[in-house]
Structures are given as C-alpha cells and as structure tokens.
Amino acid sequence: MYKVRTFIASAAPLASHCFEGRLLCLSKLECVLPVVAARLRSTKASPESFLNGSSSNYVEEMYNRWLEDPRSVHASWDQFFRNTDAGAAPGEAYQPPPTGLGVYSGNTLPLASILPSLALSGSKTGHVDEKAIADHLAVQAIIRSYQQRGHHVAYLDPLGIKIEEQYKKYCTMTQENLTLEEYRRHYIMRSSHFVGSSGWMPGLWGSLVAWFLTVQYRRLARSAGFEGFLAKKWSSEKRFGLEGCDMLIPAMKQIIDKSSEMGVESIIMGMPHRGRLNVLANVCRKPLEHVFCQFAALEAADEGSGDVKYHLGTYMERLNRMTNKNIRLSVVANPSHLEAVDPVVQGRTRAEQFYRGDNEGQKVMSILLHGDAAFSGQGVVYETFHLSDLPDYTTRGTIHIVANNQIGFTTDPRFSRSSPYCTDVARVVNAPIFHVNADDPEAVVHVCNVAAEWRATFHKDVVIDLVAYRRHGHNEIDEPMFTQPVMYRKIKARKPVAELYSAQLVKNGVITEKEYKDLIEKYEQICDEAYVNAQKEKQFYYKLTELRKDPMKVAPTGLKAETLQHIVTRFSSPPPNAADFKIHRGLERILKGRMDLAEARSVDWAMGEALAFGSLLKEGIHVRLSGQDVERGTFSHRHHVLHHQTVDKATYNMLQHLYPDQAAYTVCNSSLSEYAVLGFELGFSMTNPNALVCWEAQFGDFSNTAQCIIDQFIASGQTKWVRQSGLVVLLPHGMEGMGPEHSSARLERFLMMCQEDPDYFPPETSEFPVRQLHDINWIVCNPTTPANYFHMLRRQIALPFRKPLIVMTPKSLLRHPEARSSFDEMGEGTEFQRIYREAGPAAQNPDAVQKLILCSGKVYYDLTKVRREKHLEDKIAIARVEQLAPFPYDLVKQEIFRYPNATLQWVQEEHKNQGGWIHVQPRINTAISGSRPVQYVGRAVSASPATGGKHAYQMQMDQFLSEAMAL
C-alpha cells in the first residue's frame, strides 16, 4: 500500500502557529497519536502544572479574560483562578465544580470556554474527571512539542548523518503498548492541529495510482539518465550535475503540473549552476541536441561572447501533457554569483504580471532554486524575501526549492551557518518551510503539491528544503574525500534514488523489471540520437530580439510647446479636490515656485524630469521609478506623491493624472536595499522594451552594494547572454563637502567597464552618434541642464535598440539658479547635446582664447563662477562633455581645433585616480591624433572619494580652481 507518513497542519493558521513557520513532511516517522496516547498513560499532571508549559499561552488568555469578566470562563476555571489569586499552593488550586454545570453534558460549547484549545470528550455523568482534563492538557502539550521539535527526529537525511547532534535531547520518545480503550479515545483538537484520522496520509490504490507513480518514476529515470549520459560522453567536463538530488526534476515538474492545473500560464525560474543543464533539458524541454552543442567548441554566429553552458537561460513554450494546457517556461541566465539572479527573476515576474493585468499572480509565477549554503550565506536572499510582500514589488508568492547537498563546496553546515536549517532565513516572512527527504520520491511529490496549492491559495512565498546529497565533488573533477571522508564513504555505499525507487515499484507490482529496463534503454536511445545530431552543428546562436525600427534612426525627443505647457501646469497644481485634500504648507510654496517657473517658460531639474516622464506617459509608455525615497526625492526636490496631512494613506500621484488615456506611472519607495532592488528593476526592464524603468540610489555612493548586479548583469548582460535592457540608473554625484560616503558615485568604475576602444576613432558619418550607441555596452552621462536630462531620458525610448543608461545626477544643481533650461531647449527639433560648446565671449573670438577647459558635471558651474569673478570670459573657453561614453570624438575634435592657440586642460572635481580623467585622456589624444597635450587639473590622488572636513574640502577646491584659471 502506498503511504506517505506525514504530520501536517492546516494551511490557514500555519505561518503563525505551526512549527514556528515550518511545515514538515516527516516521512519514516511514526504517527503522532499513538505516541500521544502512550504519554497520556503515565501523565500525572494537574491543570496548574501547565501554566509554565506549552499550553500556558492559552491559559494566560483565559486568565486575562477572567480578570475582565469572571463570567467569561467556565466555573471550574473561575474557581481555579480565585484560589490561585488567594495564594493556593501548587496542586491545590483546582477544585471540581458542582455537578450539573454541563461540563460533560455532551455539548462542546461549555468545554470550549473551559479550554479554547481543546474540545473534550469523556464521561457524561456530570462529574468532573480531573484526570480527563489533565489528559487533554497533556495532548495539547505533546502536540505543541511535536510542532516545535518533531522536525528534529524526522528522517530527512538520506545518508543518515545527524550533524546537529545537540538536538537529540529534544527528541526522546517512548513507545508503550496501548489499550484498546486508549486507541478508541477521541481527542478533538483545535483547527490548527489537523493530523488526519490516524496520522497517516494514505494514497489511493488502483490503476490511477499506479499510473501516477509510473509517471513520477519516468521523470526520475530521465533525470538520472541525463546525468549518466553526460558523465559517459564528457567525463572530464565540468557540468555541475544533479546526482544525489535527482528528485529535483520530478519535483519541479510536479509543481509546474499543479500550478498549470490551477491556471498558471507562465513560470519564470532562476537557479544556480548545479542541475541547470538537466532543468533545461527535462523541465523546459530544450532540445537535447542544443544542450549537447554547448559541450562542443563551436564558433559563435553572432555578437555575443557567450558564457559557460551552466550559466545560460532559455525560453520555451509547450503543451503540458498532464493538464493539456500551454505553459511558458523561462530560465533566467545568470553568473556564478550565487543568488544574484533571485531579484532579477522577481522583477521579471512582477513586470509580466503588471503588463498582463495579473493582479493576483494567478497566471504568472516564479520558481527560485537555491543551494543550501548559498541560501543561508548570501544576503541578497534576505533582501529578496523582504520584497515579497511590498505592494510594488510582490510577485504574489514564489516557490523556493533548496537543492540541499548538505555541503557548500567543501564546507559542512557546522561551519557555514549558525542556524539549525539552511532555510531559516525564510522565517523572517513566516514562509512555510517543507523539509523533505529527497530519497523519498512520494513524499517529495506530496510536498510539491501542497506547496503549489499554498502558493495558489494564499499568494505567499513557500519553501521546499529538498534534503539530498552531492554524489561527486563540487564539480565532476573535484575530489570530495579530501575534506569529507565520512560523508563520501556513505555516499559511495548508497544506491541512487532511481535504483532504490525502481526496486520498490517492482516489488509492489507497479512496474515490471522489463518495463524498468525498457524505460532506461528508451531514454538512452533518445540521448544517443540527439548526440549524433549535435555533431552536425557548426555554429551556435544567441538570438537578440531587436525592436522593429530602423536600426540607425532615433525618433525625435523634442515636444510641442502646448504639450510642455500642459504637463508643467498639471505638475505645478494641487489636486483637483484641493479643498478636501490638505497638503503641507511647504509643498504649497514648492507648487507655487513651479508655477512661477512655468509662467516664465523655464524649468528646473525636477520639472525637466517630470516633462520627460509625463510626455512618455502621454505617448503610452509606462514609466516606473523605484528606489529609496524616490517619491519625495532624497533631496526633497521631486514630490511626485502628495500626502494628505490629516488622513493616513491618502495620497495623490501627480503624474498619474496628466491625461485621461495616459500610460501608468509607477513611483515607489523601495526597501532599504540596493542589491536586490536594482536586480529587481533590471528584471522588470527586461520584460517590456517599450517602458522606461529607472532605479535611483539614495546617494550615488550607495550603488557599490549593488556592484554584483552592475558588473555581472548590466554591464555585461548583452555581451554574455545577448539580452538588452534599457534600465536607467540614477546616481546622485558631486563634491559638496559632505564627506567620503555622500560625494562620489564612482564615475570611473562605470567608465572603466565600457566596451569602447580608446585608440579607435570611428568613421565620421551621419550615423556616427547612433552607431556609437549601438556598438557600446551601456551609456554613461553626466548632464548639467534639465533640458539635456529631459532629452536623455526620452532618448532611451526613442532609440531603435535598448542600452542601459548610467546617469550622474546632481545634488546642489537641483536648486542652482543657473541650472535652468527654457522651453525652447526642449521644443520641436531639439535633441540631446553630447557636448555643450562654449557659447560666451570666448566663442566670438576663438583665436584670442588662451585656454580651453574640458570638464563634465557640476564643476562647470564652479569654473564659470570663478571665471566671471576674474573677468576671463574672453580668455578661457569652457566646454562640458555631457556624454562620456560613448565618447563624442567628433565633437571634442571640433571644439579643440576651434581654438588653435589655446592650451588644453581637463578639469574635474574628483581625485585624479577617480572621475573621468583616466577615461577621457586617451580618447582626447585619439580625437586630435596627439597634436596637442592635455593637462590634468583637479584633486590629487586619494584612496578615499572625498575628505570628511569642510575646511580641507574648500582648500582643495580653491586650489584646483585657481590652477584652472591660471594663464
């Protein structure tokens, strides 16, 4: 008979009441009720002895109610509490109540008031049986003990190794012969203590069950067969196989089947390297010949440099034969940086839900696979979990599967985590956690069904801890006996789960020995045929999805005057129901200031951004702005969301109310995370190319905690995986004497990662600017005017392709009186300026100019101020490079040759080993063929981005500005 021995709790109150957030599949553990009955036979406890035990919380609830109203509890408890308050000694406070109170009248309502956690059954004579009450309280205590500690004796480890030996003290149990009367006795628990009629979870038997088990075995056989085939054909190749956790494949397929049955149409998955090839082949059904091609040294047929085979993703749409429904399966490509893909998957999932209008996550869901050591060791896991229930980041429930090898590379759990389970990090959001023995296939499938149903019902995260082992070393050519000799002696002696389970099925008559052998041979034949076909391939392809536009034509970014006027007017106005919506007085002044600017046909930085966003919304482009404090803006400049000053949660999103048929505008304050949130927004941006997705750091300096996403996904994503993203990264940057952690977004790091040859000047054709943008991996800008910021944001959508955009945004320039732009600079026919050329007196007589200064960013305003004070406007020309990458060779060349008698300097406020100097120096030389030396003016080299002292800051600034103005 097929039986899965389980001890489970009902779903609704699970997260707060059962297993402290764990839902366990206790396979191989004896059922609970006989043990409970055995304990009851020797129980001598009186009710008051439980006041300090597991049931004390329920008694305390009653006691508190009794203090408010003695009639709210049963007379027996009323007397008990009175005696206790009077100082009765332990064991003497309880007194049987008078007869006739209906305690055992057969009506359970009086009993529920005696002890809310239990409904008692017993004598109906009217006499209170003290032992009966004690017995039922004991039931409560024992059940609670199993909830809290039963997992310590669950047979979870297929190797039988108990690493946490200290937990044995919690798990001592006794078995006694039980009387027939005790077996027949009824203990009716509260709803959260569902254990089934006998503690067993029986399966149905017959043709249906036999078919079900055969399907599961076929999946297991394919999982094991795939790894065996790879080991045979490529024995010396790294493949990070799944051996030891073969049940991962049937587990995933069962979750997909169950979720498809409940209406899910699209599943987005993220996973580490281990088992990826098997998942691609047997879960996503990527053609085997395509998988095998990755083992051959084939020539790339496109622009991608590619990545190792166990980092690649895929997208497949196929018919799920178990449900007869179409299902779309995506595996997101990711690097070896463990768990970094988690938030990217969540962002993609949220985006697909958003664009499909799937507000409950009924059609689109995510599955995340983890390794045990990484799940507990990588902080991004914690960060991602904390996004799981935030309104603008939730994906309405993710199923997490931990392929628990019980080892991280060569480190065992005693040295890699401080908690009993690798999954304990999931308890921060009260996610139910299923720990299950991966060598018990039927238990695994049962748990997968429950997890899929939980996610579909409650739309919350759920975790499956698939306790397994790793048959080989970290990779197939590693020697694990160096560091884990005891574990690997056990592993070598243990048969694979496919062999163990097949023997069990043959023994039970589910399959025959011949059917077993035929199944193995058939799959090996399939692999052999795919292997032969793979030998015929000469090239491999990475498919890049291009927008259906002219690849070298950029749509206009300027706007009609009436559109500009309409947006700034709405952006400067209070809510239409201003009489009922009380806004802060400070915001009233801000709105008035905006209106004054609008009337003068002038815009500041915040208004330039609002014009870019608003005009895209008008054109049907969804705009999403995410990050820490972005609704208001770190520097209190944005204020896109107004808050009612007397009504909680009453807000007004200004840009959401520009036009009746506009696209949606999402502006959302994030959790205090950079790593996970930037990854999330990257994933979101990859779903729809016709959307503007922006992430803003609180200060540009803080982006360094998201460096993994920047390095591994944003800078190199297209090169490795041929996946484009138009993500905009906004990094407040500028030296204003605010110390080393609030000054520099590390511009130099982004420039250093640019895919651009500093020694190559591209041909100067009409397509020069857009061709540069097409060929580079990302765009890095340091704009100085609201108009250029406006054009730059709109250009992200106007381009016929998508590239990430890194922006050094200002701080002090947000309110600088000279950092203003007129409507004319954003009107029809205007566009982004890669360079702002000198337009003052120096430009009128270029031959008389003695010095040309090239700079970028805020320092331009510092330079012009000093130049004006020293009356050098006709002697010194200043040009600012707004787009640093790709470098505007053509315009830099023109501007330099414009002043034939001028010395050439690059001036920056950052230190010499930082900022733009290292990037621009060789490119300036290339632009002018080294015909004129370029000098550096700025701060000296430093290990720190900025000084922490105001006096030192000002002294440094005065020094380099003075040098810049010297003739």
TrEMBL record:
The keyword Phosphoprotein does not apply. Its EC number is 1.2.4.2. Gene3D superfamilies: 3.40.50.12470, 3.40.50.970, Multifunctional 2-oxoglutarate metabolism enzyme, C-terminal domain, TPP helical domain. Keywords: Glycolysis, Magnesium, Metal-binding, Mitochondrion, Oxidoreductase, Thiamine pyrophosphate, Transit peptide. GO terms for molecular function: metal ion binding; oxoglutarate dehydrogenase (succinyl-transferring) activity; thiamine pyrophosphate binding. Its cofactor is Mg(2+); thiamine diphosphate. It is found in: Mitochondrion. It comes from the Eukaryota. InterPro entries: 2-oxogl_dehyd_N (IPR032106), 2oxoglutarate_DH_E1 (IPR011603), DH_E1 (IPR001017), KGD_C_sf (IPR042179), ODO-1/KGD_C (IPR031717), THDP-binding (IPR029061), Transketolase-like_Pyr-bd (IPR005475). The keyword Oxidoreductase applies. GO terms for biological process: glycolytic process; tricarboxylic acid cycle. SUPFAM superfamilies: Thiamin diphosphate-binding fold (THDP-binding) (SSF52518). Residues 603-816 form the Transketolase-like pyrimidine-binding domain. It holds the Pfam family Transket_pyr. One of its GO terms (cellular component) is mitochondrion. The 2-oxoglutarate dehydrogenase complex catalyzes the overall conversion of 2-oxoglutarate to succinyl-CoA and CO(2). It contains multiple copies of three enzymatic components: 2-oxoglutarate dehydrogenase (E1), dihydrolipoamide succinyltransferase (E2) and lipoamide dehydrogenase (E3). Belongs to the alpha-ketoglutarate dehydrogenase family. PANTHER family: 2-OXOADIPATE DEHYDROGENASE COMPLEX COMPONENT E1 (PTHR23152:SF4), 2-OXOGLUTARATE DEHYDROGENASE (PTHR23152). This is 2-oxoglutarate dehydrogenase, mitochondrial. It comes from Notodromas monacha. The lineage of its organism: Eukaryota, Metazoa, Ecdysozoa, Arthropoda, Crustacea.
